[in-house]
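Render this sequence as a predicted structure.
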Amino acid sequence: MMKNLIDAAMGRTEPDLVLKNCRIVNVFSGEIERGDIAVKDGYICGVGEYGGANEVDLKGQYVMPGLIDAHMHIESSMVTPQEYAKAAVPKGVTTVMADPHEITNVCGEAGLKFMQKCAEGLPLDINFMLPSCVPAAPMEHSGAVLTAADTARLAPDFYGIGEMMNYPGIINADEETIGKLVKPIIDGHAPLLSGRGLDAYLCAGIKTDHECGNIEEMKEKLGKGMYILMRDGTLSRDVARLVGGLTARNMRRCMFCTDDLFVGAVSERGSVSACVRKAISLGIEPVDAITMATLNAAECYRMYNKGAVAPSYIADLVVSEDLELTKITRVYKNGVLAAENGKALFETKPAEDEAVQNTVHLPEIDESFFAFTPKTKKFTAIELIPESIITKKTTANIADNLSKVCVIERHHNLGTKGFGFVKNYGIKNGAIATSVGHDSHNIAVIGDNDSDMAKAVNALGKTGGIAVVQNGAVLEFLPLEIAGLMSLKPAEEVAKIHARLDDAAKKVGVTDGVDPFLSLSFLPLPVIPEIRVTDSGLFDVGAFEFLDI
């Protein structure tokens, strides 16, 4: 292949494709250059003046590298990898660093194999990171467990090690936890970790973090050599919080990620392209924002032939009428047109696999199942923070207009359940239940009466999904047949049902500014400060202990 590229660059042979009259975003120089782009065998072989039999006149449109989502979970889109690709590629994304720990927590190795199989043949590079925390914390009841020995055995088939959420295990030098760090590329997850604890975490070889909640935290982590993934997902909107901390010196250590983003948002506003637009709107120069979305991520993850429009780089290219990516007209993957004017130009195969279906194992329950009263008049409760997955530990009493939440083990029918009370959710005369409960994905249900809570849980059946109930009636239900996490339906149909779910959530009074489903699904995640609820009870993350209320 090298000889083919050299011959085409020198004009001894013709390129396979020539993009003419381009305004090229040079992420090395920070400049916009005029010229042509020649492609051979899926790689860029020349930038300058070129010609060939297959020419496309772009008439002065901008051409930039394919966008890279530096950390995400396809499962959180609620569609399969095939349907995700159909939504993401037209928005300029050509590579994602995907951690499949959601489906792995439910289905174990069968989930990993399912995701890898789905990704085959797509015009989207899905670099799978091997989940490091299955379950997320040692006391969790997940559907599967991946040990250090399992990790070492599976590691050769994965790009790197997925986000290490068990930072207490790392800083306490737990041998089982450290034993999972068997690849040179390791993603981090260390919210609010600083000082000696952060130093110890970094000594494990972890170099990235997508959990910075403020500029001070970001600066400390950058100063200690980390790459910072500025996140903008469905629930967590951190770009606006962090962009003020960017400088000419530290910007090359920062990039964008979505982490958890519903497919409807991907189709409507884009994923990484939305991060680019937000950064530009907050004062970042367009070429700098594009560099963060491309070259920075490529270099962080050692993809040294991606992230730039230059000779020898893979021809993953985005063509746009503007630098803000509001109108992407073409997306090329490996030099082949994969999307045009917002439409995917590729077909995919069905994703059904019985090994990852019918994963909810619960008996029929009634309202007596949810009988629970705090022991004291004042007790510890969970306060939601808008546009953040971080929660606040607060003190409340039963008259404070709280919502009752219950997390129920659903993998092995253990019968375990944990209760808590939530401030700022605001549900009235109804309940919402979901089988998406990060990261162990037990059933989470929230409501203001036990009868509707039982109705919502029973509506999930064996498949799982999301159900909204009011006054004993199911207002809307989205089945998630794959592991209780992803739908088998096309992305467009899932987005329509999800919109109806949002409307139903408004009918039952969920607070404006609170995502009714992601806010609920993150309440069981015991590695995010400050307070959570699992099927074992209310959990204080800072103290790393359960609370008795």
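Summary. The radius of gyration is 24 Å. The chain has 17 helices and 28 strands.
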